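With this grant's support, we have settled on a layout for protein records. One resulting record is reproduced below.
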Amino acid sequence: MLSFLLRRLGVMALTALCLTFIVFALVNLQPNLEKLAKEQNNMRMTDQQVTVWLEEEGYNRPMLTRYSEWLGGVLRGNMGDSTRFRAPVNEVLWERLALTGKLMFWVMVVMVPMALIVGVLAGMREGTLQDRTLSTVAIASTATPEYVSGVILTVIFASKVVGLEWFSGSSTKAMEGITVYNFGLPVLTMALYGMGYIARMTRASMAEVMTAQYIRTARLKGVSFRNIVIKHALRNALIAPFTVIMLQFPWLLTGVVIVESLFNYKGFGWLLVEAAGNNDIELLLSCSIIAVVVVLITQLISDIGYVYLNPRIRVQA
């Protein structure tokens, strides 16, 4: 296991290095730099003035030189200064990331149990009306993007059109204090969209387990259907969905872009939109680092957890 971890950490470091360099090169393309120069000075700057400003600020130096300097600063904990917020990136980024962390936590709390229940109930009676109904619900939730389901849920639960007004509180106020009233809509919007993937995987895994030989043996011995599902099938059926659940974290980090913009919740997704819209290079690079690190870490945890959950898998030295 130790050699496996060392190999994976080495691959993760190399992957992070390559991905961050690609992002660095893309955001430092000449049109972006020219746009940055005009935004920071005067939109009517001539090409010669833009060239002079870029030269003075060091943007015309070799790409590898600038990347190594930027990477060295990141490793020392200095991510540069945000041109959009006129403040160090560290101060801006971690505050917004903490807000998104709260959103991701409550989405997982709602989404995972709901998805597992739907998947297990559908898979335990494959081919029945119960299975077809729940599978249709799971597919419909996944096929409906967040910007559509968010609007629909707002009309149903937060407007006077239907009259329920259960979640009519402003999501912006959730930044100061979270309540069901002001945080229910963004959580429910993301949970419904992600639920379908986990539910469908759980359903497929549960249906496969229910046809296994040891399940048939348990039935022949007269074990009740309830005990077969809970004591024999459930544990093995949840091994495959574990990987899907872990992969929801990277999706949540990027999926919040739409939801946070839709409900004006100023977290990581909102910050990413602001950085892209205002050509904030340092902030965009820092957001890319966070995204890369989250993806790589969740994949590593997923692989390690899968090994422990499935005793048939062995890590070779």
Q: What stands out?
A: The chain has 14 helices and two strands. The CA atoms of residues 130 and 188 lie 23 Å apart. The chain has two domains: 2-78, 91-309. The mean pLDDT is 84.
